[in-house]
Amino acid sequence: MSYQAEYSKSIEAPEAFWGEKAEAIAWYKQPQTILSKDDNGMDRWFADGEMNTAYLALDYHVENGRGDQAAVIYDSPVTDTKRTISYLELRDDVAKFAGVLKAQGVAKGDRVVVYMPMIPEALVAMLAVARLGAVHSVVFGGFAPHELAVRIDDAEPKVMVTASCGVEISKVIEYKPMLDQAIEKSAHKPGAVVVLQRPEAVAEMIEGRDMDWVEAVASAEPADCVPVKSTDPLYVLYTSGTTGKPKGVVRDNGSHAVALKYSMKAIYNMEPGDVFWAASDVGWVVGHSYICYGPLLAGCTTVVYEGKPIRTPDAGAFWRVCAEHKCKALFAAPTAFRAIKKEDPDAAELAKYDLSNLQTIFMAGERLDPPTYHWTVEKTGKPVVDHWWQTETGWAICGNMMGVEAKAPKPGSSTVPVPGFNVCVLDHEGNELPNGEQGNIVLKLPLPPGCLPTVWGDFERFRTSYLTEFPGYYSSGDGGYKDDDGYVFIMGRTDDVINVAGHRLSTGEMEEIVAGHDAVAECAVIGINDPLKGQEPVGLVLLKNGVDIEEDELQAELVALVRKEIGAVACFKRAIVVQRLPKTRSGKILRKLLRQIADGKEYSIPSTIDDPASLPEIEEIMGERGLVSA
Ligand code: COA
Ligand code: AMP
Q1: Ligand 2 centroid, distance to 389 Cα (angstroms)
Q2: Do 322 and 279 touch, CB atoms closer than 8 A?
Q3: Does some domain include residue 512?
Q4: Following DSSP, what letter does each residue of 512-578 receive, concatenated?
């Protein structure tokens, strides 16, 4: 089928389209209702279907002859470990761990928070939760105790699962003390914590609450899969919004399984038995969809890589893993390739490896800049697919459908809308813009299967964050345009969310932390361009009257504060003192204007500005400090 035929059918007859795709998964109870409304008035898929995601990811394949096939290849240069786990072994590990959780009272609908590094046990924990029909919430290991505490209070987990430590290149990061601090800070207290002890750092256990993973599994009774409704939640994944409080993106079971299964062939051109490698982390949506669920739902082998693109041990790491495990697809953030390119511009490392099995390289998580695109294509000789998506959607909104019809790529574009996503470009009044004109990228409702139906415990926040700005559409928060061939170009966020090394962060949250410093009267945190990480946060700080503090000293304190509250992943390294910040007459800081200045873009002076003289002043300071892109 051609892309156009597939896409048109998905938009014109969504129920027929997705009803057909739903037949690809083994439901316990086949859905009769394809699209309906829930109590919030939101579109939901397959409401009367029943299934279990872990069954589809594991047991189904064991029952259908894939028991001996590798489900997971764990490759950890940082601990010098490699391990292959078959579908049968993984199914049994998951059933046993589900037994551990069940013995702690975890049942359908209960939440379990997982705070783990990139080890196979992270997948075991997620799948075990899914097996019980419970809801996991994985928190990225680079987040500090405060962030973890916020998520614990929102998700209210019955049990938490962690490991004693993670390993970042050669640094051992102890997870358990951070988890202990988070539980100390949180109002909600989980009943039990299961700890996987790793030899690199053995964690101290709290009696009566903490359990050793290995000991608990040794005496556990394997638990069966619990049937759930298609619309029951599978997980909550917190993502940065524009405020300090992260949003708990909810993913359901049935539509998620249908969407991901479809995507594995249609977008990534993967067949059962192929090896898929997403070089991300289970703490991000890419890790959920394409390290854990997607490849397993499709009967593929997934690579769990505990390492970096460089320095573990060199810039040939990605090529080694692809060659050694015969990966057919590699998926990573552009930052990773920029890091490799910086270290090994001629790709001398690449020549050492046989990449004949590698068919396609996929990139997402941030804008793929054309120089990085060209370098990767030129050096690897492989097609490079830029695809655009968000935690909220769970899978790609735009991309090149390699398993349907590969289109000619256009550097800078994430190609065309994926079937099911009706992508439109609107001006601020909600009028559709002609091709070539930049505006707000929105998705006409209904959203296809796999996308969030709500924010955990807060439908109103979901509605106001995504549905009210343009009635009838989901607002993506990204800006961009379409060209005459229907290719979509995503140019960046239109809100206060930034992307640092493919990690989504909220400048609003950083502002709250910076503003909490005793010396700070007011501040704005903006993302400035960074050649390696795409963007980097910088604080523009106004001091309180009478405060006498050296800028270097203040910067060091603010850097330490953000690191303590959000974590190292925030990469907040710079803060400068300014005399004034441009504001509206009602006192709102003109952040968009600051972003435009930092991007070196033309801007017009808004009529609402309070003090026009503040603009040239801030522009000059930002220029002097190297905060303005050429
Ligand atoms: N647990 C604990 N700490 C973590 C962590 C984790 N899982 N991941 C990152 N960190 C820490 C790092 O150790 C670093 O700490 P430091 O400031 O003490 O050095 C900090 O967070 C920033 O990490 P990172 O952004 O990864 O920077 P880096 O300089 O260590 O590495 C790259 C640079 C480009 C190699 C790296 O950013 C990278 O691989 N990027 C790709 C990102 C990606 O795959 N994103 C997924 C989205 S699809
Ligand atoms: P996350 O929710 O962490 O996946 O981040 C989603 C955001 O990352 C999007 O809203 C975009 O701003 C950005 N993003 C992801 N993929 C792309 C891409 N291919 N091109 C441009 N921006 C992207």
Answers
A1: 5
A2: no
A3: yes
A4: HHHHTSTTEEEEEEEEEEETTTEEEEEEEEEEPTT----HHHHHHHHHHHHHHHT-GGG---EEEE-
Closest listed ligand to the CA of 335: 1
Best residue among 114, 119, 168 to mutate for probing ligand 1, ranked by most atoms within 8 Å of CB: 168
Nearest to 89 by CA among 105, 112, 68, 107: 68
For residue 364 the two structure tokens come to 């997402």
Residue span of the structural domain in which 505 resides: 501-624
pLDDT band at 245 (very low <50, low <70, confident <90, very high): confident
Q: State how far the Cα of 230 lies from the Cα of 232, in Å rounded to an integer.
A: 6
Mean pLDDT of 181-203: 98
Q: Which two tokens stand for residue 228?
A: 């759930």
- The answer to whether residue 513 sits within a structural domain is yes
What sign does the CA torsion over 238, 239, 240, 242 have?
A: negative
C-alpha span between 472 and 474 (Å, rounded): 7
Instruction: Give how many domains the chain has, as a whole number.
Output: 1
Q: Assess if residue 266 is contained within a domain.
A: no
Q: Which helix (H) or strand (E) element contains residue 426?
A: strand 422-426
Confidence of residue 136 (pLDDT cuts 50, 70, 90): very high
In contact, 125 and 161? CB cutoff 8 Å: yes
* pLDDT for the residue 1: 77
pLDDT tens readout for residues 581-621 = 999 998 889 988 999 899 888 888 888 889 888 888 999 99
Give the pLDDT confidence score for residue 625 in this predicted structure. Answer: 92
Helix (H, G, I), strand (E, B) or coil at 461: helix
Closest CA to 606 of 622, 585, 627, 623: 585
> Does ligand 2 come within 6 angstroms of the Cβ of 240?
no
DSSP state of 225: P
Task: Report angle CA 517, 518, 523 to the nearest 5 degrees.
Answer: 50
pLDDT in tens, 505-551: 999 999 999 999 999 999 999 999 999 999 999 999 999 999 999 99
Tell me the β-bridge partners of 530. Answer: 534
Query: Per-residue pLDDT tens for 209-243?
Result: 999 999 999 999 999 999 999 999 999 999 988 77
Q: Is the peptide bond before 345 cis (omega within 30 degrees of 0)?
A: no
In eight-state DSSP terms, residue 59 is I
- Rounded CA-CA distance 210/207 in Å is 6
Q: What is the DSSP letter of 455?
A: B
Indicate which CATH number applies to the domain containing 542: 3.30.300.30
**499 Cα–ligand 1 center, Å:** 13
H and E: helices and strands count for the chain: 20, 31
Confirm whether 539 is domain-assigned.
yes
Please tell me the distance between residue 541's alpha carbon and the centre of ligand 1 in angstroms: 26
Q: What end-to-end distance do the CA atoms of the chain give, in Å?
A: 45
Nearest atom within ligand 1 for CA of residue 331? 48
**How far apart are alpha carbons 445 and 438 in whole angstroms?**
21
pLDDT score at 244? 76
Residues with CB under 6 A from ligand 1: 117, 141-142, 166, 168, 173, 279-281, 284, 286, 308-310, 332-333, 335-336, 339, 365, 501-503, 568-569, 571
Q: In angstroms, rounded to a whole number, what is the distance separating the alpha carbons of residues 433 and 418? A: 20
Greatest extent of the chain over all pairs of C-alpha atoms, in Å:
74
The verdict on the CB of residue 388 being under 6 Å from ligand 2 is yes
